Amino acid sequence: MAYLGIDLGTSGLKALLIDADGTPVGTADRTYTTQHPHPGWSEQDPAAWTDALDAVMSDLRAQHPAFAVIKGIGVSGHMHGATLLDAEDRVLRPCILWNDTRAFAEAAALDGMDGVREISGNIVFPGFTAPKLEWVARHEPQTFARVAKVLLPAAYLNLHLSGEHVTDMSDAAGTAWLDVGTRKWSERLLDASGMRADQMPRLVEGSDEAGTLRPELATRWGLGPNVIIAGGAGDNAAAACGIGALVEGQGFVSIGTSGVLLTARDGYCPKPETALHTFCHAVPDRWYQMGVMLSASDSLSWLARLTGSSPSQLTGALGDRVLPPGPVSFLPYLSGERTPHNDADIRGAFTGIGTQTTRDDMTRAVLEGVAFGLRDSAEAIRATGGTVDRLWAIGGGAASDYWLRLIATVLNVTLDVPSGTAFGAALGAARLGMAAATGAPIKDIMTPPDAHATFEPETDLQLAFEDAYAMFRKSYPAIKSIRNK
Fold first, then answer.
1. What are the structural domain ranges in the chain?
2. DSSP symbols for 309-354
3. In a 3-state reduction of DSSP, which class is residue 147?
4. pLDDT tens digits for 160-175?
5. DSSP state, 460?
6. Cα angle at 182 between 172 and 248, to 5 degrees?
7. How far apart are CA 268 and CA 282, in angstroms?
8. 462-470 contact pairs (CB < 8 A, 24+)
9. 2-237, what's its fold?
């Protein structure tokens, strides 16, 4: 038997085939484009997703004999997107993506309504699904009047695969329509944005069976009957499944273009004023909390472009030993900030620059600023009673040992770097497909990887970085005050 994980990303689709032991067998991927017809808009044609899926299925079928014995499929996808369907399941307009900011006014209005944060457990951000539908109702009323179903991107692929309107709890938690504590659609939240329960997909747990593969697709792809489609997951919940972060205190820090710090929670402990996301996990009776900073490795890439260097050249010049806080400080708000400020307008800054400032000083400042931004998320999670003691480190920034030692020191956590590369959302989705198809215990399927490196805090530098972090926390209100003048 084999199982397939499909990761529907913002820039492309990746499929990962695993065997009955959960060992990766092969991968295939395709890219597609995003349209930006106006500033702040971000849209995709769902047909691009299904075309990419057909292509990767053909690749896997041609290259891997195990493909023919697939028994379960799981889908993870980028969250919050609004795919609007009519009564015949025809797409009414391009999907409005998670990073589309046009609905900022609608989001603010919803966020200010009594009970919305309390039920959803979250601030209503402009990227969430509910304000997007408010925007469509206001600006495209003829389209809004024809909406029979609203599907998230992963749910749209579930529909394509199974013919079922179904989504999992983790993805639904990012709509601002779900009562995240009870894991049910909320009539109060739906009413707040002019929606109805019949326009929502059926809710299942990500590890449960959502349907079976449509016979015409099974025939086209050379698969047998009764291939199980799992509920699937939002991308970060799937990544947590892929790295085995399921119970209290397990989690990861992802140092990608943006920065994510995620920890699993055994209970529901929302604290929306921190700008943390508190979402259902992809497995039953579990939740997760996630802090997000918008410019993590993107800050280093920005400095690399300015200096005509590569990110690895910048970090490599610092050596291996973590240096004390440097004379230059950096606020990593190049694109605004999510956790803990929820401020789309704030922008970054260097302070302490002088004629003696070197490229290395600026590199250290950027690495430290990003580490302090991740510390903000760690402190927000700790404020809810969460544990942040040991995390997996993933993403492009995890290639820098210097940066990992620095982050471990600033956050006062142990960081483990996983072996191999197949531990992300696609693996998590495949594991959800295995769980749905076999009914095997989740704890036996979603195990952590081996670690090929571990980074402990540099205890002799912690006091100095505590002082530097305290100064960093004072910088945000000062910069905000300057921008507001």
1. 2-237, 245-422+450-485
2. --HHHHHHTT-SSPPPP-S-EEE--BTBB-TTT-BSS---EEES--
3. coil
4. 999 999 999 999 999 9
5. G
6. 85
7. 14
8. 462/409, 462/412, 464/324, 464/325, 465/324, 465/325, 465/368, 465/409, 465/410, 467/325, 468/325, 468/329, 468/368, 468/372, 469/372, 469/375, 469/410
9. Nucleotidyltransferase; domain 5 (3.30.420)
Catalytic residue ranges = 235
Q: For domain 245-422+450-485, which architecture applies?
A: 2-Layer Sandwich (3.30)
Strand 2-8 and strand 12-19: the pairing is antiparallel
| Residue 397: pLDDT band with limits 50, 70, 90 | confident
Contact 242, 431 (CB under 8 A): yes
Tens digits of per-residue pLDDT, 1-27? Answer: 999 999 999 889 999 999 999 999 999
Prediction pTM value: 0.92
In terms of Cβ atoms closer than 10 Å to its own Cβ (0-12, 13-18, 19+), residue 77 is buried
Q: Are 120 and 97 in contact (CB under 8 A)?
A: no
**245-422+450-485 matches 2-237 in CATH topology:** yes
Cα–Cα distance, 36 to 369 (Å, whole number): 30
Residue 160 CB partners (closer than 8 Å, separation 6+): 49, 50, 53
Q: Can you read off the two tokens belonging to residue 314?
A: 């910048």
Q: Judge residue 111's burial from the number of C-beta atoms within 10 Å of its C-beta, 0-12 exposed, 13-18 middle, 19 or more buried.
A: buried
Amino acid in the structure at residue 157: L
SS3 423: coil
Both tokens of 420, joined, read 């191999």
